[in-house]
Every structure is written in structure tokens, then in C-alpha cells.
Predict the 3D structure of the following.
Amino acid sequence: MTPDLMEAGAERQQAYTARIERLALATESGGRSAGYGRVAQAGEVDTTHGRILYLEDVSVSFDGFKAINKLSLDIAPGELRCIIGPNGAGKTTMMDIITGKTRPDEGTVFFGSTIDLLRYKESEIAQLGIGRKFQKPTVFEQLTVFENLELALKTNKGVPASMFFRLDSAQADRLAEVLHTIHLASEVGRQAGNLSHGQKQWLEIGMLLMQDPKLLLLDEPVAGMTDEETERTAELFLSLEGAHSLVVVEHDMKFIGELTTNGPNAAKKKVTVLHEGSVLAEGTLADVQANDKVVEVYLGR
């Protein structure tokens, strides 16, 4: 969940409570609860050079430990890229750098051809069109599925605007589309805290989609899911491929296999293996599974 959404959550709860109190005094119920917030519309990302994300020679150290070491990586528009590697390989730190949570000691990080991400704060990067999903779902459990998605809409996030907000037809259509995409149309009125772990993960992904991201960073999205939930998550990601660029960090190799051997570009899909902060190998899933170095440090015999 983006930093501005986290901050907005508390305001949303206050606005919601205030509105309920106001409605209780009114002669009319006023209908359903209010929606929330909108971040500023991000500009278009220039991908004319065929890359939506570009990292070159990125390094960062923590107390003498080099977490990222001359890392270079590029992602094409609409690509679904899987990132694998042992614990401590630098996968999460790489995402921290892309999203502005961590500043590298050196290197270049560009979003499209013209946006230097190292010039932006974490909240600003989220508004540019980069969404990040952490391993643990962070949804507003006291709100319904509908209200969580409504909260994530790109609208004015001020409390007064929240109290009087009404969905227009385009926003309602978008929300309905996302509900269908994330398999939660039947749970629209359910409190988020009562969802299963997998459903909470889908809801948070839906909240990111409501922000219209160009790039989604997904950190171990199927950890803790049932087999059925994992399969449906693979279907979800494959449905997003093309319309969005996805970077998926995951240890579940069966899930990686589902993502990389299905879809219209299955034969060309790449898997990147990180080790000790840099790229150890890159290629098709079959290529990296046959790589002796990858087998030694990660996959095992």
C-alpha cells in the first residue's frame, strides 16, 4: 500500500465516522458510506526506448555489507518479469530502491526514458505510477471490500471532499471492473478483516489497480496462500500482463512456472536470478533451471 494511502486511512476512518454522525441527524439517510481520496494524476511515462524500468550499476551498503552490488536490470512495457534468488540476495532492497524507500550509494534508476527516480520521494514515486505490494497484506480491516477500493480511487484525499464524495459512472465502472479482476465481486460488502489471507492479498492488489499504476512490484504475493488461491493469483497476474508491467519476487517455483510458461509471450518470458546483490543469471525458466550456478546457490540438486 502506498504511503499516502496509509496516511489517508486514518483520515478516511475519521471522515467515515463524522459522516455517519451527520447522516444520523439528517432527515434522509443519504445512501451508502462515502468514498475516499485521489492522488494527483501522474503524467505519461515515456517508453519509446522500449523500457519502463531501467537500473544500471546500482549499489548500496548497510554497515559495510553490500546489499546491492552493481545491479543492472531493465523491464519492458507490459512485461511480466519474475525475480528469484536466495534470502539475502537483494530482492527486497532492489524494490526499496525503486520505490524511494532506500537511496543507493551509486547507480542510475529510471522510470521510462525521462523520469529519474532518484530525484523523487517515496510518496511521489507512488503517484508517478509505481505500485508496490508487500508480502503481508495491508488493507483497512474495519472497512468493506467496496470501501477499501473506493478509498484507493485517485480522487481528492481531503476530509471534506471525502465526506461528500460520490462515485461518478466512470469510477463505478472502474471499481466494478477491478472487483471482477481480483475475484471479489461476490464479497463487495464484506468487511475486509473477515476475508481469507489470499482474498486480502487480492484486495490490496485491487487497491493498487485503482491507482492505475504503470508498474507493479509484487513481493512474495502467494506466501501463505492455499493451492487454489495460488492458482487464481497466477490467473490474475497473467490477466494484468500487457496492460501493466509486473515485477514478481517469489520463492514458489511452481507459481513461477505458471507465470512464465503461460500467456501470449510465454516463449520469451525472462526470469532473473539475484545473488549477493547482483544478477547471477537471466533467461527463460528452463535456462535458469539448467544453470549450474543457479542450481548451486538456490535451486539445489
In short: The radius of gyration is 20 Å. Strands lie at 53-62, 65-75, 80-84, 106-111, 115-116, 130-133, 215-219, 245-249, 271-275, 278-283.
